[in-house]
Description:
The protein is built from eight helices and no strands. By secondary structure, the chain is mostly helical. α7 (165-188) packs antiparallel against α8. The model has no long low-confidence stretch (mean pLDDT 87).
Amino acid sequence: xxxxxxxxxxxxxxxxxxxxxxxxxxxxxxxxxxxxxxxxxxxxxxxxxxxxxxxxxxxxxxxxxxxxxxxxxxxxxxxxxxxxxxxxxxxxxxxxxxxxxxxxxxxxxxxxxxxxxxxxxxxxxxxxxxxxxxxxxxxxxxxxxxxxxxxxxxxxxxxxxxxxxxxxxxxxxxxxxxxxxxxxxxxxxxxxxxxxxxxxxxxxxxxxxxxxxxxxxxxxxxxxxxxxxxxxxxxxxxxxxxx
Length: 243
């Protein structure tokens, strides 16, 4: 795709998901903050825009580019992918990260008081994400699937049970809260770099936290930048078709 100064981070990652690795490298928010332009991000971060575009071009031109294009999927298919991939991952790793953090606080907490802050904030994230995913699976995603089903029917009146705009706004706000919490954990842990006296559990836990943050960024990107805009556009099309 053509990249200009006014191109948004969201547009780039939507068209080439592997660009997310470049943004991760430079600590550029491509999920909740994906509406920022290349120009504004480079100015904010003190990054040479020519260098950044060069890195993005290398990713784009790499062999195999484009095999994973969730921006081309129907919203119902993408919703199922998110549940089966990212929701499943979160539910699988939450118990083990919680257990590892509890062990670190118990063994190393006296010498490393930052561990208590990290564990406390992660506990908040765990609880909030658990409720968040349930709301998506029980309320929002079924509503999106209803919109998809209605769009394929030839009916004089096609109407979803409720507008998805407000639930989407709530989910995006919760995404921001989770992202802020993981940023706090990254900062407090020194970018997930364990101290010199760290045991193997310490090192494993920091790797788990970094993986968790990376997965959350991808998870939120798929929803904020692709699924939600598609669902809103579909709802708008249905509403316009009834006018």
